Each structure stands twice: as C-alpha cells, then as structure tokens.
C-alpha cells in the first residue's frame, strides 16, 4: 500500500507541476499576443511576472480545492471540464480581488485577465483530455479487481473487449464468488482464485488495487461485507457493477437495473436550472441560427426530391409521421421524404441499413442527416429539443414497452434532433437494437445537462460533416 501511495503522490506531483507550467506559459502567451495586436500596452517584466505568478498559484489552489489533483479522482470527462471551469472561474475573481486590494499598482490592462483565463481553460481541457483519456503521465489508470466471475461479471468481458474500452483502468482479474453462474460467466479474462476473507486485504496491498467492482451473481450470504468494509476504510474504492459500467461506457446496462439502484443513484434530475428555465428559448434561438445557415440546403433538397420523383408521383417532398414525445404525447414529426411513396403499403416496418425502399436521393440525405432538417419546425413548435432521445413511432413503442424494460423512461425528457444514443449506437432496426440504444438514452436522461448537450451537439456536427450517420 505504501508503494501504491507513493506512486499516486508522484503522479499527482507531476500533474501539478505540468499544469503550473502550462498556466504560466498561457499567461505569458496571452500577454504577448495582446501586445502584438495592440489591445494592451507593454509592462515591465516584474509586473508581468507577478501577475502571471499570482494567476498560476490561484488556479492551482482552486484546482486543488475542487479535487482536480486527487490521485483517485474517478470522474467523467464532463465532470473534469466542469471542475476546470469552476476552479479557473474562482481564480479569476480571486486574482481580481487580491490584485486590486493589495497590488493596485500592479494591475494589468482590463483585457489581460479575461483573455488569459479563457486560454487557460481551453489549454487545461485539452491537456486533461489527453492525460485522462489516453493515459498519459499514468493518470486515470486505476488497478481494478472484480468480485465475481459469473454472468453479471461477464458483462465487462463482453462490453469492454478492446484496449480503447479500458483506457481508464487496468484489470487485475476476476475473483469467483460462491453462487456465481460460471457456465455463462468469464471465458477469456484472468481468474484470480483467492478466498475473500481477512487475507484478501493482503492481496489488495500486494497488487496495488485501487478499486473493487462488485459483480457477483448472488449477494445475500456470499458478499464479504466485513472485508469490503475494511477495504473501504483503508481508502479502496468499492463500486457496484452498474455504476462502473455507466462511468466507463457512458451507458446504463438496462437488463441489470433494479429499483433500489434507481432510487438511491445520483441523477435522473435536471442538473442545470438555467437550462430548465430557458429550455424553449434556447432551443428556438439555436434553431433560428441553424436555419439561417441551412435554408439553401433545405431549398435545394426539396427541389431535387421533387424533380427525382415528386413531380412524377405528385407526392409531397415532405413526410409527416406520428411519433411519441414528452410524457408519451403524440406529435407529427416532419422530414424530407427519403423513401418511395408506397414504402409502407404493408404497414409500419423497421428501417434497415440497405433498405430497398429508400430513393436515390434518400441514401444521400440520410447519410448526412439532411432529411432531419425540417424538424427545426418541430423545435419551433416546442415538440422537440435540439438534444434528446430520438422519438419513436407509437406502433413500435407499444411493442418495445412490452419487450424492453424501462423503455418508457426515455419519454421523461423531450425528444431531440440529435441524441447520445445516435452518437454511440448509430443504427437501430430491431428490438435488440432498441435495447442497446435505450442504455445510452437512459444515461442521457440521468445525466442531462447543458454541458452534455453541448458535447453531443459538437460531436453531431462531426457526424454530419464526415457522413458517419446512417
């Protein structure tokens, strides 16, 4: 444990030193750029050093106060960004107060501090992305052991097979627990045959274990509560399988959910009061901005669809379809028509990847999501948001509610033009696919926030620009 503690402290010290250099460097670069463009005047070197030094120390202290240098920080990237914004924002006010109260003669021009703070935020976000997501400096890489080697534990093996899925942790092994269903359990992972008793603590120390994941099939009478209690008191993280999968994969494993986990789990509530209060206004504002840029594309698309087969068949270039919205209310979604007029003559069908009902122009506008642009009207009408679970047809919802557990919970938020599920599981044409997408939809419902919406919006732009959609 002592070696493990020294390694953690070493990684934290490297992180603090590296970020201190980055903060100081960005403070100097900001000053250099602003003087070159004439926004601020040049100052004596000692004045610049004091201001940059004060800003650096302030950011480091505030980062420390919000836990950014905790060796065992297990946080999503969104959470890290949020902490960076808070720490640098606090530093801004701290530097303003201290410099004006104690060093009034050393105060820089008005443009310097806001510009420096902005550049520092961007730099730290990018730096933390590479350190935490790519495992640079040994950060974010936690040694984990899983208690359980049965059916529940096999979810980790099945869902996280690739190295990229395990960037944030190192799997030491799976410990079989009495009651595990070994027939449907772990097949290819390392099995650690050790009795979970008072000697288990020695195994934890010898292998520098930092987190224990509980994934046994039977808990009552088999879970070593006293041993886990002792581990927790010694600073070892103890994490339930559902929380572990949610944190590492960005989805909720629906088939493993149970009511008490939902009741006691964090989330499933709005996390941004400003976002709630201005929901409709913000969506309309964004929709108006998007419309100002894409109306020529929409006009061209409508004309091409009309010339392709609309003129011959007399069918509208638009397609209105009933969908299930917020709280199960029905509404008409509007899309550019991408299928033949007789596409559903035999009733509602799931769309397939190489659907022969799709027209020539339909393949193109679906790939680049152009067929979704008329849904801006649904946003203006308040029936949809920009970000949220994609609305499904009532015929399919009726079937899915019966076959997919917790499916109705995705209707607790307003449906959207783009969603977390579409980014992580871009195609769905069956009940099984709907189950997979629901795992991401529920993650969004649980963690919905303005920051997550912005992240989804940015990644959606990437999907559209590079044609990664269906």
Give a short summary of the structure.
By secondary structure, the chain is an alpha/beta fold. It has helices at 2-36, 45-65, 77-102, 112-133, 154-159, 200-206, 225-233, 241-249, 259-264, 273-277, 279-313, 360-367, 376-380, 394-403, 420-424, 431-447, 450-465, and strands at 142-147, 169-175, 211-214, 237-240, 318-324, 330-336, 385-387, 416-418. Helix 1 packs across helix 2 (45-65), helix 1 runs antiparallel to helix 4 (112-133) and helix 3 packs antiparallel against helix 4 (112-133).
Describe what this molecule looks like in 3D.
The chain has 470 residues and is of the alpha/beta class. The chain folds into three domains: 2-138, no CATH class; 142-249, 3-Layer(aba) Sandwich (Rossmann fold), CATH 3.40.50; 273-465, no CATH class. Helix content is 51%, strand content 9%. The protein has helices spanning 2-36, 45-65, 77-102, 112-133, 154-159, 200-206, 225-233, 241-249, 259-264, 273-277, 279-313, 360-367, 376-380, 394-403, 420-424, 431-447, 450-465, and strands at residues 142-147, 169-175, 211-214, 237-240, 318-324, 330-336, 385-387, 416-418. A four-stranded parallel sheet has the order 2-1-3-4. Helix 14 (394-403) links the parallel strand 7 (385-387) and strand 8 (416-418).
């Amino acid at each position: 444990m002592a070696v493990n503690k020294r390694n953690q402290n070493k990684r934290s010290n490297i992180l603090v030193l590296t970020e201190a250099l980055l903060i100081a460097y960005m403070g100097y670069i900001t000053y250099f750029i602003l003087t070159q463009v004439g926004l601020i005047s040049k100052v004596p070197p000692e004045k610049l050093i004091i201001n940059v030094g004060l800003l650096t120390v302030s950011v480091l202290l505030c980062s420390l106060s919000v836990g950014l240098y905790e060796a065992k920080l297990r946080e999503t990237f969104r959470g890290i960004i949020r902490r960076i914004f808070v720490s640098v924002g606090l530093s801004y006010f701290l530097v303003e107060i201290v410099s004006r109260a104690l060093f009034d003669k050393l105060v820089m021009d008005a443009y310097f501090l806001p510009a420096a703070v902005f550049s520092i935020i961007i730099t730290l976000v990018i730096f933390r992305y590479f350190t935490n997501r790519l495992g640079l400096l040994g950060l974010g890489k936690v040694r984990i052991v899983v208690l359980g080697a049965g059916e529940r534990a096999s979810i980790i093996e099945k869902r996280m097979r690739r190295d990229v899925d395990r960037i944030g942790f190192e799997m030491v092994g799976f410990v079989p627990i009495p009651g595990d269903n070994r027939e449907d359990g772990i097949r290819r992972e390392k099995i650690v045959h050790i009795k979970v008793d008072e000697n288990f603590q020695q195994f934890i120390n010898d292998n520098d274990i930092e987190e224990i994941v509980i994934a046994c099939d039977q808990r009552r009478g088999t879970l070593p509560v006293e041993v886990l209690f002792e581990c927790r008191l010694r600073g070892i993280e103890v994490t339930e399988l559902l929380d572990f999968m949610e944190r590492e994969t960005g989805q909720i494993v629906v088939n493993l959910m149970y009511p008490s986990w939902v009741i006691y789990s964090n989330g499933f509530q709005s996390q941004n009061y400003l976002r709630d209060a201005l929901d409709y206004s913000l969506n309309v504002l964004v929709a108006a901005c998007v419309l100002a840029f894409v109306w020529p594309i929409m006009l061209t698309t409508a004309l091409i669809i009309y010339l392709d087969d609309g003129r011959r068949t007399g069918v509208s270039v638009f397609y209105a379809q009933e969908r299930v919205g917020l709280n199960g209310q029905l509404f008409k979604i509007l899309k550019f028509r991408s299928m033949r007029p007789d596409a559903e003559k035999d009733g509602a069908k799931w769309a397939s990847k190489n659907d022969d009902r799709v027209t020539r122009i339909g393949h193109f506008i679906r790939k680049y999501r152009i067929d979704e642009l008329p849904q801006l009207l649904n946003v203006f009408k308040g029936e949809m948001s920009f970000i949220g679970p994609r609305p499904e047809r009532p015929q399919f919802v009726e079937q899915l509610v019966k076959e997919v557990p917790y499916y109705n919970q995705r209707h607790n938020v307003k449906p959207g033009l783009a969603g977390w599920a579409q980014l992580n599981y871009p195609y769905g044409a069956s009940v099984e696919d709907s189950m997979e997408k629901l795992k991401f939809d529920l993650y969004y419902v649980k963690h919905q926030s303005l920051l997550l919406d912005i992240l989804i919006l940015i990644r959606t732009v990437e999907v559209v620009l590079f044609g990664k959609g269906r």
